[in-house]
Amino acid sequence: MKNEIKVFCPATIANISCGFDVLGVALDNVGDEMVVKKTSKKGITITKIEGQNLPLQTHKNVAGVAGLALLSASDYEGGFEIEIYKKIKAGSGIGSSAASSTGAVCAMNKLLGEPFSNLELVQFAMKGEELASGVQHADNVAPAIYGGFTLVRSYSPLDIIKINTPKKLYATVIHPQIEIKTSDSRKILKTTISLADGIKQWGNVGGLIAGLYTEDYDLISRSLEDHIIEPIRSILIPAFDNVKSASLNAGALGCGISGSGPSIYALSKGKETAEKVAQAMQNIYNKVGIPYDIHVSTVNTEGIKTIS
Amino acid sequence: MKNEIKVFCPATIANISCGFDVLGVALDNVGDEMVVKKTSKKGITITKIEGQNLPLQTHKNVAGVAGLALLSASDYEGGFEIEIYKKIKAGSGIGSSAASSTGAVCAMNKLLGEPFSNLELVQFAMKGEELASGVQHADNVAPAIYGGFTLVRSYSPLDIIKINTPKKLYATVIHPQIEIKTSDSRKILKTTISLADGIKQWGNVGGLIAGLYTEDYDLISRSLEDHIIEPIRSILIPAFDNVKSASLNAGALGCGISGSGPSIYALSKGKETAEKVAQAMQNIYNKVGIPYDIHVSTVNTEGIKTIS
């Protein structure tokens, strides 16, 4: 068995418009890398973080906390050293904390001979999410671990379903360089919704899942609506309405807030359209004068990948 | 082209626990029959209703109202005579009004050479539903017309998706002989719900749709939960909790209120289990002393069927 492993930890888009707190999808071309080593020393030691200023202390780092959750459920008596090469910016809304939490637990699981199921790995990684946002949400960690589109059918008991990924689906993500904390963007949400909006939302979730299985891009497009969260959260994101309408005009199937923002995602059929959408998004932020990162990616159907 | 047609008009289960106002399924072994004839006389004439005491006046009968909606959208200059042989009891919660509305418009459409799409037929039939309940709901008329499981993804614009039906799925329906008006059972619902319950509901809708496509009976079972409507409406149905727990103990995948009640439905894998569930349901109402009708049925994947 290997003593050291290097993994790719994908960025993820949570919510996907209609699926607040339940849907997510993993990306191929955006993500961190981590190197995890087995050591005789007990516990988790984070030896290096490159690319971002994040705490090295195990209890303050999401990878450390998620790793400790795995360790405490394991009969392994040694420990792990972790190096983190961050490329996903914290607070970007594309699962930066989830990438680190899931990368840590998946790498450790592989080094231990895979004693834990994907569902258990999600539960460990959710401890990292709790540290990052105050809430044990699973909509980023589930797609990072399972790959593709995932549905968190239920949180109690935790029940995660991997959904089919249509072949031609591409994601475009633009990250305007402003920070919104997940905890802040949760606070502005209302705790009640109208039954009428709820009906629209579960109609769209049903439509999106049906569209993903039948690879019906028109149905996917019609289902990418959010009547509940987007109207509230989008006010925190500069020029959201312009970016969205420019994306749809450029041919995107749908466009909305990635996770709790500020990143905005769009799904498109085919790479060419996804790139046109990227150009349309950039044009808006160039005009407004807000710096951004932009990504075009296929869907990562595999989840955390072993690099070496 | 035929001048007369006899059709089978299936009973339907709306909501299917998690899918309030959006999901429905058509049945094979429970339904009305209608005979519809082309006449040179304009308008709709209901010449006969057997099996139930319902108004013959066109404007007061759901089949009449739905038929008039079709007629007014058509360039056909004659009319139709309708005979209705009711077997589904009004107010039973298994789509009695929908069976009559959809039977009328589907039969007329066939006699006219099918000028209208299924979606248009649903819109005509919804006028009948409005007469019956005050609301143009589509969750019974959609499965009666499309067959199988249907999702009303959106009401505005109307968007209906036919969902895959797993081969071994059976429905059991028990109708306790008490009347609940659809309009009354709507009144007791709250107009707001908690966001937390909404998340559970759209997680379950997503899970149910995924389970129907992948024919994953366990997932279907886990998804047949209703955290929003059932806790409120079930108080109108005598011994609901006992019937539900007896059904689940007998092996049902799930059990809930059919439409707005008072009928209770269960889904099972295989006929044998569906019949055990029927026996378990009957035992409860036999003990309580409430008369009932009981049905065990395969899913009708065809919708309205031409008998002759």
Automatic annotation (TrEMBL), chains A, B:
Pfam families assigned to the protein according to its UniProt record, in alphabetical order? GHMP_kinases_C, GHMP_kinases_N
Which Enzyme Commission number(s) are listed?
2.7.1.39
Give an example GO molecular function: homoserine kinase activity
Sorted alphabetically, which keywords does the UniProt record give?
A: Amino-acid biosynthesis, ATP-binding, Cytoplasm, Kinase, Nucleotide-binding, Threonine biosynthesis, Transferase
- Catalyses which reaction(s): L-homoserine + ATP = O-phospho-L-homoserine + ADP + H(+)
Pathway annotation from the record: Amino-acid biosynthesis; L-threonine biosynthesis; L-threonine from L-aspartate: step 4/5
Query: What is the stated purpose of this protein?
Result: Catalyzes the ATP-dependent phosphorylation of L-homoserine to L-homoserine phosphate.
Q: Which family does it belong to?
A: Belongs to the GHMP kinase family. Homoserine kinase subfamily.
- Protein name according to UniProt: Homoserine kinase
Give the originating organism. Answer: Cellulophaga lytica (strain ATCC 23178 / DSM 7489 / JCM 8516 / NBRC 14961 / NCIMB 1423 / VKM B-1433 / Cy l20)
